[in-house]
UniProtKB/TrEMBL annotation:
The chain crosses the membrane at residues 16-38, 200-223, 229-249, 417-440. It comes from the Bacteria. This is DUF445 domain-containing protein. Keywords: Membrane, Transmembrane, Transmembrane helix. Signal peptide: none annotated.
Length: 443
């Protein structure tokens, strides 16, 4: 059967014009439902809908929706740490690259400037009347003694904390806590890292939908049954989402496909230059892995500025699951301030043994707060981030394609089946609507 005969069959078909609408409608519907599926992957950040206790579907708290990535931020971030970040190096290695001696000097200088007000705050909290009536000469001796011993003690303490960071901080828990506490950060991370892949999935879906629409048009020509319109629309919806996601991550390893090349690109019009035919090779690889160097720069910037930051590390150290160990280490350093004859004699006589013991706990609490003030300084965090950016970037670039795909793959893998089923469902609904609005009025 030649092309003329096929065209004649189309032209003579009683639903010719309705059939012609199948390819463009399928392309548009596919493009639209893939856009919707991608949006539902990331939004809304918080659950939107009606909360129902013990709701059994999709791990949701009720009838409604929450983006898959923000809903499972803790689980996805844990996978990223286990499968990718843990391969880039240890937390101790990252902290040492931040130059802890310089950090200790910065923290010590900041605390020393506010030392007298810190001592006043501690003493007024323990015994405000007593401290208010303490002669200034005695206070001055305590201030002077603290100023003398503080730099060495703080320098030693901060250095000790940073060198024992692996014992005091669980990097996986730190990043999971950060992501669960700020789910928008997780969404922004995936959008920055994978924006080109997301756009590719969205736009290639229209082309895939157009191809499927042409196939469906021929199917309707052979099997002129109206049920085929919504049925195959659902099939195309399922296949389009699956193919689009598959193309982003597959093949994982690059494959060189030989082809016959007749021209090369040119800068000016007509933008191509004819050449003698020769065998060239097309590098076929999943779009995400193909951009490994580019993505490494973006992801490394996110890691050093938002995840493995000095503030996050110290915050986990001071207030996280291993905070008790941190307090014990700090005690061994800070209690030296109280061991000088001047301070110990003055405070013991003034406060008594019991109050003096409670004072030690207050000193630890206030010292933690005082230490975190300079740690939160944006300039300090920015300068430390610059120390480890190159390390992260280079090691990300050195990952194998199998390891590298785990930066983005967990977000899609987590509920990939949901996205594919959603494509089938929306395809069926669109196909049914197409049937009602276009085919039935022409009957």
């Amino acid at each position: 059967m030649d092309a003329t005969s096929i065209w004649q069959m189309f032209a003579e078909h009683p639903e010719f014009f309705a059939m012609l609408t199948i390819p463009p409608v399928t392309a548009f519907v596919t493009w639209a439902h893939v856009w919707m599926a991608l949006k539902m992957l990331f939004y809304p950040i918080r659950f939107w809908g009606i909360r129902i206790p013990n709701f059994p579907f999709f791990g949701l708290p009720g009838l409604g929706w929450q983006g898959i990535v923000p809903r499972k931020a803790g689980k996805i971030s844990g996978v990223i740490v286990d499968q990718t970040l843990s391969k880039l190096g240890s937390l101790d290695e990252f902290v040492q690259a931040m130059e802890p001696e310089q950090m200790a000097m910065f923290i010590t200088d900041t605390v020393d400037k506010n030392l007298e007000s810190l001592i006043d705050e501690i003493m007024l909290e323990r015994s405000d009347v007593l401290w208010a009536n303490t002669p200034y000469a005695i206070k001055r001796r305590i201030y002077a003694q603290a100023h003398d011993v503080l730099p060495e003690i703080m320098q030693s303490m901060v250095t000790d904390l940073t060198y024992r960071v692996e014992d005091l901080v669980d990097m996986r828990q730190m990043i999971v806590n950060k992501m669960e506490g700020d789910r928008r950060l997780m969404v922004n991370m995936f959008l920055k890292v994978g924006q080109k892949e997301i756009d590719f999935i969205w736009h290639i879906s229209a082309l895939i939908g157009l191809v499927f629409g042409i196939i469906q048009m021929f199917i309707f020509l052979i099997v002129p049954q109206h049920w085929t319109v919504p049925f195959f629309a659902a099939i195309w919806g399922l296949l389009t989402n699956w193919i689009a996601i598959w193309m982003v991550f597959n093949p994982i390893e690059p494959r060189l496909i030989p082809y016959l090349k007749f021209f090369s690109k040119a800068k000016g019009f007509p933008f191509i230059k004819l050449q003698w035919p020769h065998i060239a090779h097309f590098r076929w690889q999943g779009g995400f892995m193909k951009r490994q160097d580019e993505v490494s720069d973006v992801f490394a910037e996110i890691v050093v500025n938002d995840l493995v930051t000095l503030e996050n590390i110290m915050n986990e150290m001071m207030y996280g699951t291993r905070a008790a160990q941190t307090r014990e280490l700090m005690k061994s350093h800070l209690y030296q301030i109280l061991e000088s004859p001047v301070v110990r004699t003055t405070l013991r006589l003034s406060l008594g043994r019991r109050e003096f013991g409670q004072l030690k706990n207050t000193i630890i609490d206030k010292s933690i707060s005082a230490t975190m003030v300079p740690i939160r300084d944006p300039d300090l965090n920015k300068s430390r981030a610059s120390k480890i950016f190159g390390m992260f970037r280079d090691r990300l670039r050195a990952l194998s394609p199998h390891e590298f795909q785990n930066l983005l793959r967990p977000a899609f893998r987590e509920d990939e089946l949901t996205l594919i089923i959603l494509g089938g469902l929306t395809g069926f609904l669109a196909g049914w609507l197409h049937l009602v609005l276009v085919f039935f009025p022409m009957m």
